[in-house]
Amino acid sequence: MKPFAVKDKFIPRGRIRLVGDKSIAHRALIIGALSRNKTIIRNFPVHDDSLATLNTLVAFGAKIERNNKQVLVWGFQGLRKPRKPVFVNNSGTTLRLILGVLAGTDFETKIIAGKYLSARPMSRVDKPLRLMGARITAKKRGSEEYPPLVIRGGKLKGILYRPPVASAQVKSAILLAGLSASGKTRVIEKIRTRDHTERMLKTFGANITVNKNSITLIPDRSLSSPGVIYIPGDISSAAFLVVLAIIIPGAKIVIERVSLNPGRCGIINVLKRMGAKIKVEPFKNRKMQGFEPMGNLIVTSGKLKATVVKPSEVPSLIDELPVFMVAACFAEGATVIKGAGELRFKEADRIDSMLTNLISMGADIHSIKSGNLENIIIKGKGFLNGAKLKSFGDHRIAMSMVVAALAAKGKSRLDDISCISKSFPGFLTTLKSLLR
Ligand code: S3P
Fold first, then answer.
1. What is the CA radius of gyration of the chain?
2. Which ligand 1 atom is the nearest neighbour of the CA of 171?
3. Which of 182, 184, 181, 217 is nearest to 198 (CA)?
4. What CATH number corresponds to the domain at position 347?
5. Does residue 226 lie within any of the structural domains?
6. Boundary of a domain, candidates 196, 219, 242
7. Among 263, 213, 254, which Cα is nearest to 236's?
8. Which of 83, 209, 273, 286 lies 20 to 30 Å from 399 when distance is taken between CA atoms?
9. How far is 156 from 153, CA to CA, in rounded Å?
């Protein structure tokens, strides 16, 4: 347990650069390990989740070296059956993406997860992989499946799949399995999700085409690394600082080289629609920009007006919704987040945990079912009160509550912030660097 207390307030001002995007880092490691030549990954984020993927690949015989500056992934050596069950810690992206890779191997693997991931649903990914030919057994509770899982790869065949839930992890697992399937694999999404896997596969020379919501992969060539991959700063980590700078009067920050992938910019688009002063300066230099767009964000504090977040927008800010709820508490009017139900299946139930914390800070927030959608309604009061807060073991709840506590009137205490190491171990140091 590592508690955190907020007594003194500060006005964030300054210029920062963040380590690489977590989602892109997972893909760079996995696809790098599957390609025939070596990949150097720059601006690699070192945190629990990225290390979970790195260690998992090493357990399958991949050769990966890491120093302070970069990660070197040697080319494909052929994945080997691990000597013991593989532990993926609490990284859902590691587990779901690696299942896609393992679906095409000729051995059996047992995968064990940490406490939080062991409570997250897996049938969304098991089902399509079984349709492709993988054999998977998992712990069952009711009609849902959970880790630990045993997967035995097989001769896969390509499928056409329409995921019932909008999930980039599910789409990515299917595409990675498609690399070793016979025939083409097509995924058609109802709502588009982040396209990092598609971009990374393309960068490594895969025969992948994207036509609106339809992605087609033809496994007719081996993957070849472009050599160096630069990972832009993590927009999900930037979001905490963006919201903080908006809601604390007098704040102004610049965040350099942030990922501007359109599938991830929902938080910027929605906050701008609410009147937030965010200037986006995309990098024009193609060499710097690489295969993922990036740029600088200049954020100045200011007033927010309520908005409605549509279900079609939700995947583009799914991980930012907890801190967005904090921002909505400071907006004028009632903000509605429509179709937020997937938040219940993250590291913690992010609806219950945010409601518990924000209500204890005096917020007017509730969730309501409307047909098959779950909506969250936040009536902005323009302030929050300091309170005793809980992280629920979830990194994004912990960081959202640090932001809320810094903007609140009076003192707050958060029970445990050790979970922040999952995605942003430098969070507090970064905040201190903005102390003026
Ligand atoms: C991720 C996809 C999202 C997101 C997660 C990372 C990814 O999950 O919440 O933090 O890297 O593909 P879902 O695909 O389950 O929505």
1. 21
2. 14
3. 217
4. 3.65.10.10
5. no
6. 219
7. 263
8. 273
9. 8
Mutate to test the pocket of ligand 1, among 22, 215, 318, 345 (most ligand atoms within 8 A of CB): 318
Rounded distance from Cα 167 to ligand 1 centre (Å) = 6
| Pocket residue to mutate for ligand 1, from 169, 195, 201, most atoms within 8 A of Cβ | 169
Shared-domain flag, residues 194 and 261:
no
Residue 227 lies in a domain: no
Is 343 inside a domain boundary?
yes
Residues 263 and 199 both lie in one domain:
no
Q: Could you tell me which residues come within 8 angstroms of residue 142 by beta carbon, excluding any fewer than 6 positions away?
A: none
Residues 95, 239 share a domain: no
Among the candidates 194, 219, 244, a domain finishes at 219
Report the distance separating Cα 352 and Cα 366, nearest Å: 9
Local confidence pLDDT in tens for the 436 residues of the chain: 888 887 777 899 999 999 999 999 999 999 999 999 999 999 999 999 999 999 999 999 999 999 988 999 998 878 999 999 999 999 999 999 999 999 999 999 999 999 999 999 999 999 999 999 999 999 999 999 999 999 999 899 999 999 999 999 999 999 999 999 999 999 999 999 999 999 999 999 999 999 999 999 999 999 999 999 999 999 999 999 999 999 999 999 999 999 999 999 999 999 999 999 999 999 876 555 568 999 999 999 999 999 999 999 999 999 999 999 999 999 999 999 999 999 999 999 999 999 999 999 999 999 999 999 999 999 999 999 999 999 999 999 999 999 999 999 999 999 999 999 999 999 999 999 998 6
Q: 59 CA distance to ligand 1 centroid (A)?
A: 23
- For residues 392 and 285, membership in a common domain is answered with yes
Task: Indicate the number of domains in the chain.
Answer: 2
Amino acid at 90: N
**Region at 210 (left for phi over 0; alpha for psi -120 to 50; beta for the rest):** beta
What is 356-386 written as a DSSP string?
HHHHHTT-EEEEEEETTEEEEEEEE-S--B-
Q: Could you list the residue range(s) of the whole structural domain that residue 170 is in?
A: 22-219
The pair of three-digit structure tokens given for residue 275, joined into one six-digit string: 């009147």
Does the residue 224 lie in any domain? no
Instruction: Pick the residue whose CA is nearest to atom 9 on ligand 1.
Output: 319
Calculate how far, in angstroms, residue 168's C-alpha sits from the geometric centre of ligand 1.
6
- Asked whether residue 267 falls in the same domain as residue 280, the answer is yes
23 close to ligand 1 (CB < 6 Angstrom):
yes
Is 394 designated active site? no
Q: Is 89 in the pocket of ligand 1 (CB under 6 A)?
A: no
Catalytic residue chosen out of the listed positions 48, 49, 195, 319 = 319
Are 66 and 153 in the same domain? Answer: yes
